[in-house]
Fold this protein.
Amino acid sequence: MTNRLAEAKSLYLRKHAENPIDWWPWCDEALATARAQNKPIFLSIGYSSCHWCTVMEGEAFSDIAIADYMNANYLPIKVDREERPDLDSIYMQALQMMSGQGGWPLNIFLSPEDLVPFYAGTYFPVDPRYGRPGFLQVLQALHRYFDTEKAELQQRKALIVESLLTSAVLQDVTTDELEDRELLRQGWETSTGVITRNQSGNSFPMIPYTELALRGTRFNFESRYDGKQVCTQRGLDLALGGIYDHVAGGFHRYTVDPTWTVPHFEKMLYDNGQIVEYLGNLWSAGVQEPAFERAIAGTVQWLKREMTAPEGYFYASQDADSFTESTAVEPEEGAFYVWSYSEVQQLLTPEELTELQEEFTVTPNGNFEGRNVLQRRNSGQLSATLETSLSKLFIVRYGVSSKSLETFPPARNNQEAKTINWPGRIPSVTDTKMIVAWNSLMISGLARAAGVFQEPSYLELAARAANFILENQFVNGRFQRLNYQGEPTILAQSEDYALFIKALLDLQASNPEHQQWLEKAIAIQDEFNEFLWSVELGGYNNTSSDSSQDLIVRERSYADNATPSANGIAIANLVRLALLTDNLDYLDLAELGLKAFRSVMHRSPQACPSLFTALDWYRNSTLIRSTTEQINSLIPKFLPAAVFALTSDLPEGSVGLVCQGLKCLAPAESLEHLLQQVEKSQVRA
């Protein structure tokens, strides 16, 4: 027997359809029912490729005693954070206020009358263990509290609401006013420190920080860090580490160690788009490591083979877990990706095995539960022998060679994974929904890699995804965030607007002759300004003015997490649009946006690298007007605060014009002169 979630479009919600818990989706009817019955709301937020979300679904959410108590005493609601990042952001902040930490699954208890949280946690086991109480105990204790401690409950909620509102308004505090160059230096140094190799804990890509660290290297700031070395090391860790799938391409979410060896195996579209862009930028900045080019090419092949819908858009993610055989009850983490020593030994010749062990971490004892995650020991070009060995591993995993496998159809759920007759291993489940923000990150990565490596196929792949969004993601003239098998749904949020506008501008930058990308960016920016700009506070709200009724506070995203903050990206976009259109209204909005978040940049530079990137754009923006030939020669170079505009109307004897904000320099008489002007212009703040 199934519950209401059986009809959901979200893969994550459908995974809970057979739970004995009487789940509701987040909707007006659910909230009204909770109020009418005066039941506290148990809100559980997660996403389909979240390992511990899957664990809790199979344990606590499948337990009959827990379900009976939950159904009698609570109104249980499930939310996919990828569908509603606005809800996730608000209640994650509440969790962090209450516990000092965050993560998923996010389980939070709300009062029905006002949706204000009064308790929150992450994973709850069925029985007490890991220093955590059993879930049924938690439910019983909180229900007693809700029924009997009304005065304390109201006081607790008032404190939480006050904290959330204060955080949303970003009330300024008295600070010494730093001039922009020093503020930028502090932001750069903080981000460079964040990505400096640590000696303990997990290792995450942290691309918003790496991007700021890389673009800041051109200033030659005095610092305790060697910025170029730190950025290069991050690129090597990504391209050589176990976080990269050396057999079939694509990057995993993060590694569980400081050595970049053993990943948490899910593959997220948003990570891959950002990493491709970063490695492309690193290459263009002069760090031309062959492993970077190989990792980008392999990731694009994985994207085309496994993550691209027939219609041209990109799927959201692939799970960490997969089944070892069709009769298995539960999937195993990393099963699709890891290798036993005996398996590799049987597959390769002694010579091939010897060379593989010299260049990769392959040992009899393994590095992950007795099996091997491949991690490169050295940089540089892989030999033909090694590529042949990796091709043999590919055939074992997929059942055919990489050259003959253009498309690998997704397993859309566990049932498909277990019942389809796969020629190789059983693959992880793929979440096939289309998310505009995540597609945009991949489009930007492809556009940059296309420009750096002069690879037209990358640009074609990016353009096809962008055109799908332009042609399919508008309903009654309004931009939509998601698409489920051809059906657009849920109004776009600030990250969708900001990242898609950036993607369109990045396509324009890689191919300036195609003016349609700029025209579309302008049209979507108009809608963004109309529905999400905060007139009172400056910056962009996370949700539109006509779809915020169920939120206890309207937030403005300024903090970078796994993805860049919407406002950081949006402000940089405004500067780029001002340069490309000569419309100074965009520059006015950019100035207001930076002013709105300046106190955060002073107090918490570690929270907002994308805002510092936006400040860099605002202070050092450079417009290059030139011919197609000259611009094509500049596109592969690392010019992080420059935009290109085609013109045939140049002064006689010149090759281009460089403009800084509201003034232009003397016409450049040679390409060398032009480059000199551009490089100097980009460090003028």
Remarks:
- The mean pLDDT is 93.
- The radius of gyration is 26 Å.
- Residues 326 and 418 are 5 Å apart (CA to CA).
